[in-house]
Amino acid sequence: MASPSIVWFRDDLRLTDNPALRAALDREEPIVALYVLDEESDGVRRIGGAARWWLHGSLASLGERLEERGGQLVLRRGRAAEVVPAVVDEVGAGAVFWNRRYGGVEREIDAGLKEKLRDDGVTVASFAANLLYEPWTVRTQADKPYGVYSPFARAVQKLPAPRPPMPEARKVPGFDGHVDGDELGAWDLLPTKPDWAGGLRETWEPGEPAAKTRLREFLDDDLGDYSTYRDEFAGGATSNLSPRLRWGEVSPYQVWHDTIEHRGSGEHARSASGFLSELVWREFAWHVTYHSPDIATVNWRRNFDAFPWPRLNRAHLETWQQGRTGVAVVDAGMRQLWKTGVMHNRVRMVTASFLIKNLLIDWRHGEQWFWDCLVDADAASNPFNWQWVAGSGADAAPYFRVFNPDTQRKKFDPHDEYVREWAPEFLDENPPEPMVDLSETRRRALDAYAHVRHGG
After folding, report:
1. 422, 235, 420: which is closest to 322 by C-alpha?
2. What angle do CA 8, 373, 128 make, to 5 degrees?
3. Quick check: pTM over 0.85?
4. What share of residues in the chain are helix, strand, coil (percent, to 5)?
5. Is 210 exposed, middle or buried (0-12, 13-18, 19+ CB in 10 A)?
6. Where, residue-wise, is CATH 3.40.50.620 in the chain?
7. What digits encode the pLDDT tens for the residues 276-315?
8. Crossing angle of helices 363-373/345-353, nearest 10°?
9. Neighbouring residues of 449: CB distance < 8 A, sequence distance ≥ 6
10. C-beta of residue 383 within 8 angstroms of C-beta of residue 296
11. How many Å apart are CA 124 and CA 72, to the nearest integer?
12. Could you please report the per-residue DSSP string of 27-41?
């Protein structure tokens, strides 16, 4: 009698280059494709509103693609440590496969499940699918994790090249028996009262097919200009692949090898190298997070625990969140974030710097807002990059670096294209006044940072 395989989908919502799915196909038994919405396990961070919107669309797309190939996506809600064994029992599964996760809580859940299922006689295997270099494989000569990007990047260059991506699953043998599952709509991942997702719908189409299309478009049309225009706020040279990678609609192996195939020579090759370095930066963020799983709440540099944050000014925080600071680039960026669920990477640094250093608001408040508003909110990159700007993180910007929004505007939006699109009132004869004096608050921030530097 056939003993089905369960493929537990997580942050890998794709049929191409999915090692867990490939292992199940190789077993040549019926497959139960399972997704568990776990917001109940202790320590699991609930995903933000924009990410929930994306997840709904990506799951809908995955479900349709599985059905086209003979399979079915089963949706369950609850504690993964309870749901997965329950489904194993219901279908009489002989094997469970998944692709590895690297957050601390998630690793504990997976390790416990692996032990329990194996004790019950179930074959269990996990695979590397969502990082090119798993965090424990990159070590210093002293056998320690890296805390600085440049030596980390040099170290990965010495490792074997990333494996080639696996082919797309064209057929997925479905399970003939009945498996109870939730209706996707019953999860209420989409906003309704109010429906604030109109801008997301205008901007994005979640799902693996759209991810593949965007990767091809970027490599064919934009890669050659990447190094030249990547920092321009209104430029079209950015890849817009971050939410695709975050949800695993495309794998880093696909992106890496397709980019290598398109790199060409001269300026094109330089752009390709610059783009691939961004993938390595993503790897570094996960490397640091793996070894410091509390990075979203705890300063990576513990001396920053002594930073003299003033009492939270909630009015200032809300003004920043709403894009009403009176600083053109900051307001444009915050409005782009609210409408589209993303923000140009350099603008993210400018808006973060303004909150932390000009308003002296703890980076954790900004990180939480981005977590709720970004469709690409990533458990590693989001807190890692906020700590980088704050100066409390790994390979952090020097404490004295305070991004000047006006200087950044002149350099990277010289024709005010970005500001015109998102904050056009700053092009009026009488533009808004900044909520704080940039020079004065910069000096105040440097005084506060000196307090930490000199030990309080």
Report:
1. 422
2. 30
3. yes
4. 50, 5, 40
5. middle
6. 5-129
7. 999 999 999 999 999 999 999 999 999 999 999 999 999 9
8. 140
9. 307, 391, 399, 400
10. yes
11. 21
12. HTS-EEEEEEE---S
- The topology (CATH level 3) of 131-162+208-291 is 1.25.40
Residue where the block lists tokens 């092009």: 427
Contact between 399 and 452 under an 8 Å Cβ cutoff? The reply is: yes
DSSP 201: H
With tokens 């089905």, the residue in question is 4
Buried residues in 179-208 as b, exposed as e (16+ CB within 10 A): bebeebeebebbeeeeeebebbeeebebbb
Query: pLDDT digit string (tens) for 379-415?
Result: 999 999 999 999 999 986 666 688 999 999 999 999 9
CATH code given to domain 302-451? 1.10.579.10
Q: Are 380 and 285 in contact (CB under 8 A)?
A: yes
Secondary structure (DSSP) of 137-152: G---TTS----SHHHH
Active site residue ranges: 278, 281, 309, 345, 363, 386
Give Cα separations from 322 to 38, 116, 351, 378, 427 (angstroms).
30, 47, 12, 22, 19
Query: Is the link from the previous residue into 19 a cis peptide, with omega within 30 of 0?
Result: no
C-alpha distances (whole Å) from 67 to each of 15, 70, 71, 72, 240 are 12, 5, 5, 5, 28
- What the block records as the tokens of 283 is 């790897």
**Superfamily classification of domain 5-129:** HUPs (3.40.50.620)
d(CA 25, CA 28) in angstroms, rounded, equals 5
